[in-house]
Amino acid sequence: MDSDTLQVFQSELTCSICMNCFLDPVTIDCGHSFCRPCLSLCWEEGQTPRSCPECRGISERPDFKTNIVLKRLASLARQARADHDQSSEEQICVTHQEAKGLFCEADQTLLCGSCSEGPKHAAHSHSPIHRAAEESREKLVKRMRSLWKLRAKMQISLNQEANKTQSFENYVALRKIMITVQYQRIPLLLHEDEKLHLEALEQEAKEICQQLKESVFTMTQQGESLKEMYRELTGMCHKLDMDLLQSLGSVPSCRSESEQLHVPQPVVPELSVWPIPGLIDWLRQFQVYIVLNNEEVTHHLPVLEDLRCLLAGPDGPGVDDTPPRSKYFLAWGAESFTSGQHYWEVDVAGCCNWAIGLCNDSWARESDMTLDSKGIFLLLCIKENSQYSLFTSFPLLPQYVKKPLGQVGMFLDYDGGILSFIDVANSSLICSLLYCSFSSPLKPFLCSGYP
């Protein structure tokens, strides 16, 4: 192939982003083709929507399969370039004065034919330089794909950790209001206890926020390290065949890569239990005894499955669409509340997933019982893997406190628009739903799941 033809051939197989011969080429919706690493790095910067770097056409799909034909042609273009370069400036073996055309896989060295037959290399495996270089590129591309998946996983964790930081800060501000309201409503409680409680909350929240910020910083640094390693491997793949083979020794091992770039465990923010002296005794003066009816056992409960899906989210781990193996016990109180102050207790010991609180009659009669319904005021506990998370609805908000292990008390002030959940064993406030608009008869609601 003459130089002019070679130049045209190579120009048609050149990525317009890196201006190198295609590496793991992909063809996007508009028809333009790019190296997968170049496109990944370009789109990783957060373009919304994703567009073609050449024509700016919008691409609907996030990922594409390798264009096999372009991949083969790119390999031929590299070989033609190598043959052309070699003809003008051969690498000569000093000992035998022959061109080095073979690669010894055992010693990672370039050899001439005579060296490959000598006693030092005769027992080793040898390949033509271009074939060995293409095989090495393929191995590096596979590692790069794994690195990019790890990068994507780390970015998801980073986004979740950053969102968690903001969510926790907002929660702490709301919890201070919950505590203040709780102390103000109970005349037996001392102002000094309230002050100590809020100071302890402030100090502990400050420490947790610092842990979250350090976690975000660590994930950011590791993400940048991974991206830099990805760029280095891309640059190595674009090297000439001989240069690539001679630089393989500088590629870090898969094990050291894995150790260096493991995804750190996220911080689990959880505030300590702070007992409120005399709280349970004061609440029990309003105690009522709830008679449950409409009991049933089901293998599926939308309100809890909704929450599991929301926890996973678009960036979270996949949720199995099949019905959960847990059995759910559902019950509604026979009595409805339309006014006044009422307190009752529910035992959630041993339950993996549960929801307790109040709902209106219409929600109790609904067959779907979804979280976006109005007229529900619940505390929900969900177990994902080995971790428990608490939420309140409506609206859905995380509660960064320890899961109660036994009795949960509920105090309803219908006219005041407050529903509080109490950890009875610790005489501590789990959370309060404040400024609620109770406008219809409310029934106590209980759902508990057992594995």
From TrEMBL:
Residues 88-129 form the B box-type domain. The keyword Glycoprotein does not apply. CDD domains: Bbox2_TRIM43-like. Pfam families: SPRY (PF00622), zf-B_box (PF00643), zf-C3HC4_4 (PF15227). One of its GO terms (molecular function) is zinc ion binding. SUPFAM superfamilies: B-box zinc-binding domain, Concanavalin A-like lectins/glucanases, RING/U-box. Residues 15-56 form the RING-type domain. InterPro entries: B30.2/SPRY (IPR001870), B30.2/SPRY_sf (IPR043136), Butyrophylin_SPRY (IPR003879), ConA-like_dom_sf (IPR013320), SPRY_dom (IPR003877), TRIM/RBCC (IPR050143), Znf_B-box (IPR000315), Znf_RING (IPR001841). Residues 269-451 form the B30.2/SPRY domain. Keywords: Metal-binding, Zinc, Zinc-finger. This is Tripartite motif-containing protein 64-like.
